[in-house]
Amino acid sequence: MLTREFIIIKIGQGLLHVLFWCVVLLFFTYFFGVGSNNFNDTLVYSLFLMPITIALTYVSIYKLIPDYLITKRYYHFILYSIYTLIISAYLVMVSIFFSLIYISNFEYNNMNPITRNILFVMTGIYLVTFIVSGFKLMKLNIIASNKTKSLKAKILEAQLKLKEQELKYLKMQIHPHFLFNTLNTMYGFALKKAKETPEMILKLSNLLDYLLYQVDKPVVSLEQEINHIEDYVSLERMRFNETLKVNIKKNISANAIEIAPMLFIPFVENSFKHGTITNGILHITISIEAQPDFIMFRIKNTSSKDSNHTDGIGLDNIKKRLELLYPDQYYLQITNSESEFTVVLQLNIKSNLAND
Question: Where is the Signal transduction histidine kinase internal region domain (predicted)?
Answer without folding.
Answer: 166-243
